[in-house]
């Protein structure tokens, strides 16, 4: 039996449903499937399915049920395209949602039907989904299926409207919705209000709000800001409007403030306020009252501040007593201040003028008095202290004007202002005319650099050549080239001065002048200096004359280092030979470098061992198979010669290991590691692979420009003898992977396998160039692997039995 479509009716409850029924309890291995049509998910991220079903108790089938179960499975299958063919029915193609049981009860009699309702949900990402019901031996009836998704409904809260928002893909997901302010409302902060939508479709945790715009008030339900005054006033007679105006201050039923009243802040809780004295609101819905003609209020003043004017008079107004009640009996004496008093010249010389004055006698009834300077004949290079930009206001009664021209007439104007001056047509100021003094005919010379650091120089100069003049002080003016108007000045009584905190790779201009009892002399011609970060290049008065100190110093340092490198090479090589000569013959015999062979001499002059090799001067000498022989003419009994040879022969691996471990080029004391590596590259590599002269110069220049790389010094470690008792025995390793693990380089196992290197014998034949081809580019890793390979070679050669010819 399979799923069968039937009708389910219950007239008492008004139910007439089409249902699917299955009851294969009399069979074993039951596997009945029922699919829903393709259900498109639309905008939903999570789909819910509600199942109404009934189930018979297995106790109704005593002895006849072979596979009676009391559960069924709910599965789903996501798909991007709807097809006419049913989806695959294999269990592995579907995802199990849940195994559903009749939690509300199973009926045991034919007339007693218990309807169970279960709800499950799944996250969806594709176009749609198939649901499947799998029966494996239960007696059930599927009565109704409902598929739906959940969304938080559209809502208005805090004068903001939030749209319908679908829940997230998970049961714990929270979606954020941004609200849109209602008409005549605005955000209370920089961002719109937000509401959180929970997975169960409810809103919670409102952040932010909207406030009614100035001149509007929210309604009782906080749903909108209505313009009820403007709409209703168009239909009311003038008498009703006047009556409404007289009552509006006590009965705030209008959502928009009427004429004569204002609302200073959006969403103000105080409602509409009456205008302050000497101000009026000619229209409805204003956020600020306007000042009467001849009265002022500063922009930075609060909106409830009364408007003021300079002349004093009692406050009178035709407005109702209720409107001006909070401000009655006030008199106001405020406005723009009068001009400053007693403007005086305190000091004047060739380039500087100092002025001072007294405050105005009438401050305009305000305390925010400030002053402003103007000079029509001054150029842009003139500076005003304490006013940095000349036309900016300041609150001191003294100003120093600098960088003026000698023998020049200047007209200075000093303005007095307060918070309402910009609203008045009057400009109250006082002026004075000053003529600067004549320039003293003396000038410093020979401006030069006497000390240099990376961001600091020491500048020196010669005093003016006038023995009858006493120098009181010097003024040094320095600036970035091209920014002469933004110069800095330094006063000193010495003929030199340091200048710290200069920017690297920047050109600076310097000018110096002297001051005597007669005044200041002329500035010297601008001298330009270029900060390079290492050495200062002096350009001088003429920008086309450049002396590149860096190039000369670099060449000298390179030549000196090359000389030291060659000297160290020969000295260390000779010391290495002397050290080898001090050893026992069995440890380090004399090595003679010839065309392709090495002669090993032992105590017995009749035994000579010849090794074919390529004996240049590599760091790891490659020694080929030995050919050992004895001279038979010196022995009457050849057996005696063999015994003598076996007793006296020198172990070739010991000789090779001694040569590798004891005759390397060590680093000099306190030698930087980078420089020692350059020395090794020049000594240990083949002739064709050694760095060229040009590359050596570039390397040394790079080291000079980056001195931090020279801080790490070489640590001379005692070279480990690969044949020493404590040396690791690499011949016991059985695979390349095991060897790489022993040297902690297993990360390169894939490189070796890709190159077909599968044995240690193949590894022992690798060179430094082979490692680079394998993709091992780090110098430290190359060195570590090559050291292990050399140890492996020495230990492998020790295990090879030396043959001999008689």
From TrEMBL:
InterPro entries referenced in this protein's UniProt entry, alphabetically: Eph_TM (IPR027936), Ephrin_rcpt_lig-bd_dom (IPR001090), Ephrin_rcpt_TKs (IPR050449), FN3_dom (IPR003961), FN3_sf (IPR036116), Galactose-bd-like_sf (IPR008979), Growth_fac_rcpt_cys_sf (IPR009030), Ig-like_fold (IPR013783)
Task: List, for all copies, the residue spans of the domain called Eph LBD.
Answer: 1-157
Give one Pfam hit by family name. Answer: Ephrin_lbd
Task: Please give the SMART domains that the UniProt record associates with this protein.
Answer: EPH_lbd, FN3, SAM
Signal peptide positions on this chain: none
Q: Name one GO molecular function term.
A: ATP binding
Task: List residues of the SAM domain.
Answer: 731-795
* Record field: transmembrane: 549-572
A GO BP entry is:
axon guidance
Q: Which UniProt keywords apply?
A: ATP-binding, Membrane, Nucleotide-binding, Receptor, Repeat, Transmembrane, Transmembrane helix
Q: Where is the Fibronectin type-III domain?
A: 339-438, 443-535
Q: Which GO terms describe its cellular component?
A: dendrite; plasma membrane
This one is known as Uncharacterized protein
**Keyword Repeat applies:** yes
Q: Which PANTHER family match?
A: EPH RECEPTOR A5 (PTHR46877), RECEPTOR PROTEIN-TYROSINE KINASE (PTHR46877:SF14)
Subcellular location per UniProt equals: Membrane
**Membrane topology (UniProt):** Single-pass membrane protein
Q: Does the keyword ATP-binding apply?
A: yes
């Amino acid at each position: 039996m399979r799923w069968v479509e039937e009708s389910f009716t219950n007239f008492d409850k008004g139910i007439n449903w089409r249902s699917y029924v299955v009851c294969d309890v009399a069979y074993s291995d039951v596997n009945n499937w029922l699919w829903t049509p393709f259900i498109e998910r639309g905008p939903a991220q999570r789909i819910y399915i509600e199942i109404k079903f009934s189930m018979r108790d297995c106790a109704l089938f005593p002895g006849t049920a072979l596979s009676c179960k009391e559960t069924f499975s709910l599965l789903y299958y996501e798909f991007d395209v709807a097809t006419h063919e049913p989806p695959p029915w294999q269990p592995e193609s579907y995802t199990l949602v849940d195994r559903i049981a009749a939690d509300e009860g199973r009926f045991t009699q034919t007339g007693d039907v218990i309807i169970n309702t279960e709800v499950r949900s799944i996250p969806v990402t594709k176009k749609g989904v198939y649901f499947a019901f799998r029966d494996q031996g239960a007696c059930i009836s599927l009565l109704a299926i409902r598929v739906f998704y959940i969304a938080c409904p559209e809502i208005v809260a805090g004068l903001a409207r939030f749209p319908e928002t679908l829940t997230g893909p998970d049961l714990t997901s929270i979606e954020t919705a941004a609200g849109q302010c209602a008409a005549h409302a605005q955000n209370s902060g920089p961002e719109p209000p937000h509401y959180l939508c929970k997975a169960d479709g409810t809103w919670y945790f409102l952040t932010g709000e909207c406030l009614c715009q100035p001149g509007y008030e929210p309604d009782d339900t906080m749903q909108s800001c209505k313009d009820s005054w403007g709409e209703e006033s168009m239909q009311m007679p003038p008498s009703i409007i006047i009556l409404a105006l007289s009552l509006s201050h006590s009965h705030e039923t209008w959502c928009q403030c009427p004429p004569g009243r204002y609302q200073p802040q959006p969403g103000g809780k105080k409602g509409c306020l009456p205008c302050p004295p000497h101000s009026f609101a000619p229209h409805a819905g204003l956020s600020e009252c306007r000042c009467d003609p001849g009265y002022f209020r500063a922009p930075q003043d609060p909106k409830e501040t009364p408007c003021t004017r300079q002349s004093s008079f009692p406050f009178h107004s035709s407005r109702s007593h209720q409107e001006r009640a909070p401000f009655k009996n006030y008199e106001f004496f405020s406005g723009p201040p009068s001009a400053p008093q007693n403007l005086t010249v305190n000091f004047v010389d060739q380039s500087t003028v100092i002025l001072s004055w007294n405050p105005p006698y009438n401050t305009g009834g305000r305390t925010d008095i400030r002053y402003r300077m103007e000079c029509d004949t001054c150029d842009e290079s003139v500076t005003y202290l304490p006013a940095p930009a000349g036309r900016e206001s300041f609150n001191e009664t003294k100003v120093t004007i600098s960088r003026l021209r000698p023998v020049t007439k200047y007209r200075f104007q000093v303005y007095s202002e307060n918070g309402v001056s910009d609203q008045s047509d009057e400009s109250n100021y006082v002026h004075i005319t000053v003529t600067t003094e004549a320039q003293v005919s003396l000038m410093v010379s020979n401006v030069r650099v006497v000390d240099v650091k990376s961001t600091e120089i020491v500048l020196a100069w010669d005093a003016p050549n006038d023995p009858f003049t006493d120098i009181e002080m010097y003024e040094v003016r320095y600036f970035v080239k091209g920014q002469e108007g933004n110069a800095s000045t330094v006063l000193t009584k010495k003929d030199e001065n340091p200048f710290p905190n200069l920017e690297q790779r920047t050109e600076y201009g310097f000018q110096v002048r002297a001051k005597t009892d007669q005044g200041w002399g002329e500035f010297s011609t601008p001298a330009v200096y270029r900060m390079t970060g290492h050495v200062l290049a002096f350009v001088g008065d003429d920008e086309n004359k450049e002396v590149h100190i860096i190039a000369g110093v670099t060449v000298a340092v390179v030549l000196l280092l090359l000389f030291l490198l060659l000297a160290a090479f020969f000295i260390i090589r000779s010391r290495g030979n002397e050290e080898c000569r001090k050893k026992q013959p069995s440890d380090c015999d004399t090595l003679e470098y010839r065309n392709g062979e090495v002669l090993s001499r032992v105590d017995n002059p009749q035994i000579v061992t010849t090794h074919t090799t390529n004996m240049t001067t590599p760091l790891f000498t490659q020694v080929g198979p030995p050919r050992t022989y004895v001279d038979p003419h010196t022995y009457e009994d050849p057996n005696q010669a063999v015994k003598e040879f076996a007793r006296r022969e020198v172990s070739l691996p010991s000789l090779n290991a001694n040569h590798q471990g004891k005759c390397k080029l060590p680093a000099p004391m306190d030698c930087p590691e980078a420089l020692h590596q350059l020395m090794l590259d020049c000594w240990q590599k083949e002739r064709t692979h050694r760095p060229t002269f040009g590359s050596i110069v570039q390397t040394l220049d790079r080291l000079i420009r980056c001195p931090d790389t020279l801080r790490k010094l070489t640590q001379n470690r005692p070279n480990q003898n690969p044949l020493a008792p404590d040396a690791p025995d690499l011949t016991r390793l059985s695979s390349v992977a095991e060897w790489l693990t022993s040297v902690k380089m297993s990360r390169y196992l894939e490189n070796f396998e890709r190159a077909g290197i599968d044995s240690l014998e193949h590894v022992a034949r690798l060179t430094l160039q082979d490692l680079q081809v394998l993709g091992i580019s780090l110098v430290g890793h190359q060195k570590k692997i090559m050291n292990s390979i050399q140890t492996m070679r020495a230990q492998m050669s020790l295990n090879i039995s030396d043959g001999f010819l008689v």
